[in-house]
Amino acid sequence: MAQGRTDQLQGQRVTSLSRAEFHQQHLADARNEALRLFQQKTVLQGAWLNWVAGQIYSLRPAAYASMVRRELQRLQEPEGP
């Protein structure tokens, strides 16, 4: 799944879009990818951290990988009051 997403985004250069445009275009995909990765946490348990790091490392472009990383971080934060 991550590989397919990488292939689709690889040809896009973040510099050809403003950061805001890139973020807006790919936010839903980044959230879906982060959710997919997060859902594997209960399955992989102790092996999840190394696995998810590898998955994020393989994402391209780097701006997209950063978006997924931020969304994954958001999913792991405890919900406030």
Question: Can you offer a commentary on this structure?
Answer:
The chain is mostly helical and 81 residues long. It has one domain (2-76). It is 73% helix and 0% strand. It is built from 5 helices and no strands. The protein has helices spanning 2-10, 19-39, 41-44, 48-57, 62-76. 19% of the residues are buried. Mean pLDDT is 87; it is low at 3-7.
Model regions low in confidence, pLDDT < 50 over at least 5 residues: 3-7
Give the termini separation.
Answer: 34 Å
What amount of the residues lies in strands? Answer: under 5%
Mean pLDDT: 87
Using brief descriptors, characterize the structure shown.
81 residues, mainly alpha, disordered N terminus
How are the secondary structure elements laid out?
Elements: H1 2-10, H2 19-39, H3 41-44, H4 48-57, H5 62-76
Describe this structure in a few short sentences.
The chain has 81 residues and is an all-alpha fold. It contains 5 helices and no strands. The chain has one domain.
